[in-house]
Design goal:
Blueprint (H helix, E strand, L loop, with lengths): L5 E12 L2 E12 L3 E5 L6 H8 L7 E6 L2 E2 L5 H5 L3 E4 L11 H8 L7 H14 L1 H5 L10 H13 L5 E5 L7 H16 L3 E6 L2 H7 L2 E6 L2 E7 H6 L1 H7 L4
Parallel strand pairs: 3-8, 3-9, 6-7, 7-8
Antiparallel strand pairs: 1-2, 1-4, 4-5, 9-10
Keywords: Amino-acid transport, ATP-binding, Nucleotide-binding, Transport
GO molecular function: ATP binding; ATP hydrolysis activity; branched-chain amino acid transmembrane transporter activity
Organism: Starkeya nomas
Length: about 240
């Protein structure tokens, strides 16, 4: 699927932060309606990869295309306008705004669709009852897990066809991690394309169709999620297998 119907093609990109090189010739593809995970430890380059796709950092070499259109050098807002939603690392909710106001920001690109947004908000509240209970609460006073649910709901209100998610389980309790991945399984069933950066390799491989493992800014191994989950080296390095 990824080769015949690609949404994202990252081709041999290098990324530098000043004199420090973070990515070395990284290539990956994400097919339509596919979930692709990018795995790796700290400082492996996985967050830099997703930031490159979103236009938050600019590769010094290589190309990135979205639906066949080169997006190198485009501003993040121009990339988001192409039907992309982002769930950033650390949630990045607006702490001094209410849950309801944060959700409306997710729907801002659709602000002329008042009736549709109202219906989508009701569906969000059905899927996330805690957000309905706390819709008037300041987002910054919520727990980390509740903020992650808010970040996911805010992204869904964009009605995206492609979602880029950076470390959705970071800092969450096992209960909230399970809830996050239930949401992502639902998105997968809806046919939403997902590029997922994650340290929790076990959960990511259960969700993903394919995965790439980065080490020191390079793709060390790639393949189907099931193949990587059974690969002895991957299991030892990332899944805690003996």
């Amino acid at each position: 699927m990824a080769e015949t119907d690609p949404r994202i093609v990252v081709d041999a990109i290098d990324v530098h932060y000043g004199a420090v090189q973070a990515l070395f010739g990284v290539s990956l593809t994400v097919g339509a309606r596919e979930v692709v995970a990018v795995l790796g430890g700290n400082a492996s380059g996985k967050s830099t990869t997703i930031k490159s796709v979103l236009g938050l950092v600019r590769p010094s070499r290589g190309t990135i295309t979205l639906d066949g259109v080169p997006v190198n050098g485009q501003r993040p807002d121009a990339i988001i306008a192409r039907g992309v939603a982002s769930v950033p690392e650390g949630r990045r909710v607006f702490p001094e705004m209410s849950v309801y106001e944060n959700l409306l920001l997710g729907a801002y690109p659709r602000r002329h669709e008042a009736r549709e947004i109202a219906g989508d908000l009701e569906r969000v509240y059905e899927a996330f009852p805690r957000l309905k209970e706390r819709r008037s609460q300041l987002a910054g006073t919520m727990s980390g897990g509740e903020q992650q649910m808010l970040a996911l709901a805010r992204a869904w209100l964009r009605r995206p066809t492609l979602v880029c998610i950076d470390e959705p389980s970071m800092g969450l309790s096992p209960r909230f991690v399970d809830q996050v991945y239930e949401v992502l399984q639902g998105w997968k069933a809806q046919g939403i394309t997902i590029l997922l950066v994650e340290q929790n390799a076990r959960m990511a491989l259960e969700l993903a169709d394919r995965a790439y493992v980065l080490q020191h800014g390079r793709v060390a191994v790639s393949g189907t999620a099931s193949d990587l989950a059974s690969d002895p080296q991957v299991r030892k390095a990332y899944l805690g297998a003996a």
